[in-house]
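Apologies for my clumsy wording, but could you write out the amino acids of a protein and the tokens describing how it folds?
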Amino acid sequence: MVEGTVVRVELPPEPVYFVNRDDERERALRAVTEWRSRSRPLVLALSGPGGLGKTELAGLIARTLLDRRPFADGVLSVDLDDFRADGVLDPGDVLSQLLNSLDVAPDQVQAQYAARCRQYWNRTSDANLVLLLDNARYASEVVPLLPASGDSVVIATSHGPLHDLEAGTAVDLALPPLEERAATELLELIVRDHRLAADPEAARAVVGLCDGLPAALHVAGRWVRTHRLRPLSRILADLQAELDEKGVSGVEHIWDTAYAGLSRPAALLYRLLPHHPGETFTLHSATALSGLEPEACQDALEELDRAGLLDLRLLSLTEAGQMRLPGPQRGHALRRSRREAADGEVTEAQARLLRWFVRQAQLADRFTAGRRLTVVDLLDPVPGVPDVPLQDPEAAVEDEVRAERAERAARWLDEERHVLFACSRLAHGRGMDTEVVALSEPVWTHALDHPHQSEVIEVFRRAVDSAVRHGGNAGWLVRTRCQLARPLWESGELSEAEVQLDSAMSALELLGDSERDRKLAASALEFRGMLKGVRGEWSAALADFAGSRDMHRAIPNPYGVLLQTYRMGEASAKADDLGTAHRLLSEAYTGFVAKKRERLIGRSAFALAGVLHRLGRTDEARELYQQSLERADRRRSGFDLARVHDALAELDTAEGHLVEAEEHRAAARTLRRRNGLV
């Protein structure tokens, strides 16, 4: 750069407030430093939905590059949206502006497009510049505008990824939403108001409402600055209404434009996604919701990604392949739905999704827990919508494969639990009683490994209400009341749990003599025994378990017999009859291993280890505790993991291994905090 030369810099002023994005800036600068091509520029491709601050970040990167390297031809900047007519870009017009910026007089710009391209390449063959291309939609819009020099750098922003740029010439800098800490920092910079520190809970709610979108945080900041006398809690409600009704100023028109360019299937899917129960969805559930063929739904999701209305990068973060619309964008999709959805479009879509999701949850339940007592048969497949690719453990020959399939189904239930809870709410509100009761079964299986979740009790309450509302199925009444009783007594609500079990026992008179009804009667007796055990009435509990075992033998139901043997073993241990407890728990453990019941292998091993420890057989106890720990870890059961660590801490303390004991206690404390068990 010649001293005294004025370098052209076509950039707006730096943003007043900008936080985070340090990783993206560092990656960009490192890539430029390492770039070695002589005839082709490096492209820094910044992508993400509107409102994430891509344009501001592009400008900051450009200024930093200019500060660190002598780009003699300066920084040129073009907003490609300024050159669109009915959504179509004319690259010839863009080239004209770029040539003008490169000091080519307007009357010297070539008239024909091909000649203009050659003129631009010739003019930039030795150029040393930074070119910022804002709001690109496709790689094909960027390629004709690339300078013909490896000493230049192109920064392109787009709402979706620019997949077709040649490999090795582009650095993909996909921007995620701001994390909570960075979002809070940005809001504090925008507002600088004591109310944020005075009411941190409300401030966090304001940040959460913006879902990591800087543009939404600026809207929130203006609301806080404008209403200086109002408490944040009042502002929060008004801001929610504002975002729901009007969207994010400065971004809404971007999303409207992107939506207007969608194909009919993609527009349909976008309108329906905000009506998906829960905040997340998957490829499979989106297919069920939309009613599109699977391949058409895949195409629609990819189209939304290209349009910047969805971020498919989230697919890789969960095993279920969950995606989500950020809150402000979800609001935009909801507004489009309210304006354009056909009559019955949303109702039909949700009903179809509910039927499909219930079936998936039933399958995951069966694959996780094995075939067991349930009161709603497996729903039929939804035509045109494939099931989630979970595999039946019972179809596998090898034990490791069986265990892996069961664990995969359990992980699906865990990852989809919030959708499961939301589907229960939606189905209950729609009066779909069969679906509500059916959903309580997979929630039951999930809750055995993850107790004390507040949503669980509400799911079971809705199931009881649906059973009562339906009124024609005594089995539902027995099963749902027993299910509700357990989380109630686990939460200390013993009196209400007893009321539910008394009602369940009364409903037994309405049952018939089918195998399922006889299993229900035996199960109700087991639940009554468990409540007695919670109260410390172990002799009475033992009598109920023995009675339930006799009922299972009479059916006959070998699994039920094993389960009650296990219950009797636990009760005997609590009653200090260690010899009987050892015999019963050994029998149950051996039986569960033979039947390959993963959860009950782990839990019976834990109970048997406790008895062996008390009998002084610590080596055998440690081996079983370790086995129980491994199985709980595979199931991601924080509850079981914590109590096994506690037991191992007690064992290590008794043997004088104090360091190891403290490590186990620390692990148990961490697990309880992480899983909300404290």
